[in-house]
Amino acid sequence: MHVILDLCIVPLGVGVSVSAYVAECHRIIQTTGLKTQLHAYGTNIEGDWDAVMAAVKQCHERVHAMGAPRITTTIKLGTRTDRSQSMADKVQSVHDQLT
Amino acid sequence: MHVILDLCIVPLGVGVSVSAYVAECHRIIQTTGLKTQLHAYGTNIEGDWDAVMAAVKQCHERVHAMGAPRITTTIKLGTRTDRSQSMADKVQSVHDQLT
Amino acid sequence: MHVILDLCIVPLGVGVSVSAYVAECHRIIQTTGLKTQLHAYGTNIEGDWDAVMAAVKQCHERVHAMGAPRITTTIKLGTRTDRSQSMADKVQSVHDQLT
Amino acid sequence: MHVILDLCIVPLGVGVSVSAYVAECHRIIQTTGLKTQLHAYGTNIEGDWDAVMAAVKQCHERVHAMGAPRITTTIKLGTRTDRSQSMADKVQSVHDQLT
Lengths: 99, 99, 99, 99
Prior knowledge:
The structure is a homotetramer of 99-residue chains. Chain A is an alpha+beta fold and 99 residues long. The first copy, chain A, contains 3 helices and 4 strands, in the order βαββαβα. Chain A has a 4-stranded antiparallel beta sheet with strand order 2-3-1-4, with helices on one face. In chain A, strand 2 (35-39) and strand 3 (42-48) form a beta hairpin. Chain A is globular, with a radius of gyration of 15 Å. Chain A starts with a strand and ends with a helix. The mean pLDDT of chain A is 96. The A-D interface holds A 4-6, 8, 16-17, 19-20, 22-24, 26-27, 37-42, 44, 46, 74, 76, 78, 80, 82, 87-88, 90-91, 93-98 and D 4-6, 8, 16-17, 19-20, 22-24, 26-27, 37-42, 44, 46, 74, 76, 78, 80, 82, 87-88, 90-91, 93-98.
């Protein structure tokens, strides 16, 4: 099952600056070889369900290991069986409507 | 890793009524034996990360099998290493502040 | 426009315990007279769009005033024009499917 | 109060293709003059709280007017009082950590 997922990991108990944690998660996701794209309120990831979810779990484990005692994460994720669609396809289909 | 997760599965392409799909997911989660609580905008689930995530995946697979060609899901999930906390604890700690 | 909204306000930079902030937001929402229901990963609110959104804004302002320098909030919200539906109706329609 | 918001509007009861609705919302937001950035799982918007929230409401009203009887929307939004931060700043601060 292919999934497109928007991941926003928020470490608590480590002050207001969270960019070091977000960057570390970005490194983890890039290491997996999954397609990924950073945006201003999260990171989009695309790939096989199990591989993407394993990456999300690895991010949680790593952020705790970096010292965050608590994490709250928001995820949006989409699957479809009618056709295959990539992250780039999704953005393109909106742009097609805009022209 | 223990997790508390808020799951909101939205099937697309099946009309405006989604309660049959939500109910089926609720049945799946109850079958797993995980602690769960339905609310007006989702279902809270508590347990071991892998077991909870397996339940989420099973819900997606089942909702597709029921005929939904597309699903978009929103998840909030929390983990902590400083102490154990259940869904009931979370609600109780707010109620304690309210009295 | 009637809305059912799930609100999860997360203050950053104030340590790991956030129940005092959640409780204060619950008090604010109850003061508005809007229907509300606390659950383990947020607070559901129901009412007119403008009144509900004013309550959300008031919560952000109050949590900052309590000392949180940064807030990240996750909201799910639903509107429909085909029929009126309350938070209780939503839960009931799932329970009807379960029996 | 300045806000950075991630908006994901999902119309129900209109089939599986939602790009026409997303594109229309993108047009509405661009008309407001607010800074905005489309990504693969939503649209980021930045500006004054009231202006951003007015745009979100206008999107809901327009998507209903286009024929969607039901909408479910997921929003992430951040405010901070310690310093000003733009969408570009957020992405940059992560990139700075990655180099």
